[in-house]
Task: inverse folding
């Protein structure tokens, strides 16, 4: 995975405000590069230091294997939810998801300026040669 792409995805994730969320594909669209799978790969390998819970599947499902931790963040931030999150917290059962239609981040003009700057840096960086950050390159 190109370092420039990783840095760009993480920069976008850091802009997503508390109580809102976007889908993996939204991040790719905002960058004008990659797709949901590429963003998901970045998040699974490098996303632990950013608000990872704000980046979801298009269905509103949290990142796999992180349901309970993500739910605590959503409740703390007041993120709109659907289903039975209370039952999930009580019993570990119960289906829930983020109401992505209500929670989807709508960037302000100033945030779009920041997103454009991130996308421009990415585009310039991708035109240069870089070493993949795969721990195998010399």
Result:
């Amino acid at each position: 995975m190109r370092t420039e792409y990783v840095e760009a995805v993480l920069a976008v994730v850091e802009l997503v405000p508390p109580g809102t969320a976007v889908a993996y594909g939204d991040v790719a669209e905002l960058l004008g590069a990659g797709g949901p799978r590429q963003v998901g790969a970045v998040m699974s390998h490098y996303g632990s230091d950013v608000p990872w819970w704000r980046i979801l599947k298009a269905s509103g499902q949290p990142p796999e294997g992180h349901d309970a931790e993500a739910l605590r963040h959503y409740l703390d931030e007041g993120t709109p939810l659907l289903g039975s999150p209370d039952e999930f917290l009580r019993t570990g059962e119960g289906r829930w998801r983020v109401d992505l239609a209500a929670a989807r981040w709508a960037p302000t003009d100033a945030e779009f300026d920041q997103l454009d700057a991130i996308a421009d840096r990415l585009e310039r960086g991708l035109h240069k040669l870089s070493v993949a950050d795969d721990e195998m390159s010399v």
About this structure: The helical segments are 3-15, 24-31, 36-46, 67-77, 85-91, 100-103, 109-126.
